[in-house]
Structure of Alpha/beta fold hydrolase:
Amino acid sequence: MKYFVVPGESRHLDQATRAELRGDFIECGDGITHYEMAGPEGGEVVVFAGSLTTPLFYWDQLVGELHSRGFRTVTFSAYGRGYSDRVAAAYDEALFVRQIAELTQRLDLAEPFHLVGASMGALVAMAFHIVSPCGHMVPYEEPARTSLLFTAFVDTARKESSR
């Protein structure tokens, strides 16, 4: 499976290597985060937090569906995953919550945004919600928009299962 680290990996994550890769890189407090922000300008923002072993491209099919529905997306690789830095810190909830907070601040996501997590990313998303000001989360009081977001998940899953 291509998502796992390969023994003997020799590629160094320096500026020259990063220039050859897709996406963008941003310095956060604990290290460099690999991310992609895409979709229609002005669209509601959906931030994705991946699971224990998944880099940002895990979400590629879903974000394409969301872009077609007018959403703007931010995907990123957590520290130690994908092309984000392997930081010298405890890989705990606080680290990953801090990474989301710093990434969204540095990207100037001042408006409320949707935060979606898979597996460990869901736990990090819930922890982020506890410590984040309420203004940074889209309230569920907007069922029409939430429904549109949910149907994109369902439609992507259907397309995958029909392959």
User: Anything to note?
Assistant: The two ends are 18 Å apart (CA to CA). Residues 21-161 form a domain with the Rossmann fold fold (CATH 3.40.50.1820). Residues 27 and 33 are 6 Å apart (CA to CA). The chain has a mean pLDDT of 84.
